[in-house]
Design brief:
2 copies of one chain form a homodimer.
Chain A lengths: L1 E3 L4 E2 L1 E2 L7 E3 L3 E7 L25 E7 L7 E10 L4 E6 L14 E8 L2 E4 L2 E4 L3 E6 L9 E2 L3 E2 L2 E3 L10 E5 L5 E9 L13 E2 L1 E10 L8 E3 L3 E8 L2 H20 L3 H11 L1 E6 L5 E8 L5 H6 L3
Parallel strand pairs in A: 1-5, 4-6
Antiparallel strand pairs in A: 2-6, 3-13, 5-19, 6-17, 7-16, 7-19, 8-9, 9-10, 10-11, 12-15, 12-17, 14-15, 16-20, 17-18, 20-21, 21-23, 22-23
Helix pairs in contact in A: 1-2
Chain lengths: 303, 303
């Protein structure tokens, strides 16, 4: 088991970022992740305007994975997301979120976590921990991607299916992949309506392995029952187009049919789901049930 | 039990449309619904360019419900959607759907239905029948709404949770509500990626009742476990804003908290889901779990 402490962070997924740890293909690595505010917000009286904005959205890493080369996928098995704190942070900021024009008061709410649930407004809401920021170094052409932004390299995808038991496949663009993660949420709904989840530092355990010679435009997520193509773009419509396009292309290859026939199939069985609407780019996932095509079949279609 | 035959159709939800049947508050009504092509497409060789485009998206009705007045909700309990045909129709048209630019061939695929499943590309896909077009007469200000378009009156919402066992609450804008429905899909994924579901005529059984003095901007859907605010707008972002705004307003009243505190709650527990991205307006639903607030509580917040 190898460890990366939470003090080793980047604020940008850059093509040339410097690894803080090198691991072998198949190694298990534990990351100390920070919350999106780098733990600068601890009470309802803290004011977001007064914290250090140079320290927002830290991602722990990066880790160099031996054998990972451009044209491969980095396979990330999410083995555990341990929330070891007894509170999480949320906030509303005027001009942010899905209903930005109705915000009258900037507020912070620090929410207690008791026995696996958040206690808020008299409700007990069970935790469902997820990873908000997770990615690899982008291509030289895509250039440095700030950690607050999602794109082809992963990044701030804020997709709540990126949780314990899921496997994320990230397109490797640089030697060693250069993997980093952070910004865990103890709870978040599809959309992340107000612009924060329940923000927590966490200890994240993953297995990192290399899938050779498999080229994807976008991150691919495998859950128990589904395979998701996660795409990000300036609008939800563009993100939908990109995620559905890759799903249809893969289905046409798997089923050996016309592209248009696969497009019809997608209309019947693929769910287009919103991940988040509050980051610099919008994130959407096209969800293919494993009863239609397995993740292995979809990955083989990318070889 | 009362019946409306499928020959009684409208192509526009108009403020002044003429009822073909009058029923009492609480009556059960069976509708003969037509598919979106009015059954003009029956084989893979049919060409959409050559069918009568004046007969697309017919909605059966309208029905006048005694006692329904502007400022009420029409409660529609969906008791059955019986698909009595042995095939459904799908189509791809260049320039339509979520990936419109990649379509090279306009195709029709008529798909057999055998023992409760569609048989397509070697797959068996279980039917999950839903109602695509369902609504009431709009306000005078909103004017006639073509049946291919979703808006505040309902219409072409293409939301697959509008199925047997769900209850839809539609904002009454005209005396008697003037209710109509059509465009059932035997199967459809969130998004309706290619622009058709598995289009079928169906026999739809609903109970129509009046919820007095309850004003909603948008249709509200109740399923076994969730309450959904369904909003439609030119972009998915605007539809998200409208559906989340109404959900947050209701949650603030139910939980007697600040609007901003409810906005935070929505970010944690409300899922924003895409219904469809292929009609003249985009449709999104904000989904509130009943464990957070019951449908009754949300409706009471609108009184």
């Amino acid at each position: 088991m190898k460890f990366v402490e939470g003090k080793h962070v980047v604020y940008s997924f850059a093509p040339d970022m410097q690894a803080v740890l090198t691991v072998d293909d198949g190694d298990i690595v534990v990351f100390g992740s920070n919350d999106c505010f780098f733990q600068q917000v601890q009470s309802n009286n803290d004011v977001l305007d007064r914290i250090d904005h140079e320290r927002l959205n830290p991602a722990t890493g990066p880790v160099f994975v031996k054998g990972a080369k451009p044209g491969d996928l980095l396979k990330v098995d999410i083995m555990a997301i341990d929330v070891l704190v007894d509170q999480g942070v949320t906030a509303v900021v005027a001009g942010e979120g899905s209903v930005k024009d109705e915000v009258e008061h900037n507020i912070v709410r620090v929410i207690p976590i008791v026995d696996g649930a958040a206690e808020y407004l008299g409700l007990r809401i069970p935790l469902k921990p997820m990873i908000g920021v997770i990615g690899v170094a982008p291509s030289d052409a895509d250039g440095p991607c700030p950690t607050n932004t999602p794109y082809k390299h992963g990044g701030n995808m804020d997709t709540h299916d990126i949780r314990k038991g899921s496997t994320l496949y990230l397109p490797v663009r640089q030697e060693g992949a250069l993997f980093a993660l952070g910004d865990c949420h103890a709870i978040m709904g599809d959309g992340e309506a107000c612009f924060t989840g329940l923000e927590v530092p966490a200890q994240v355990t993953v297995r990192l392995s290399v899938v050779k010679d498999t080229v994807s435009n976008w991150p691919i997520l495998e859950t128990e029952t589904e395979t998701m193509i996660i795409a990000s773009a300036p609008t939800l419509e563009e993100a939908t187009q990109k995620s559905v396009s890759q799903a249809v292309g893969a289905l046409a290859k798997v089923l050996n049919c016309m592209w248009e026939e696969a497009y019809i199939l997608a209309s019947l069985v693929v769910d287009v789901r919103i991940s988040q609407v509050v980051d610099p780019l919008m994130t959407v996932r096209a969800v293919v049930p494993k009863t239609i095509a397995t993740t292995e079949q979809i990955l083989n279609a990318l070889k």
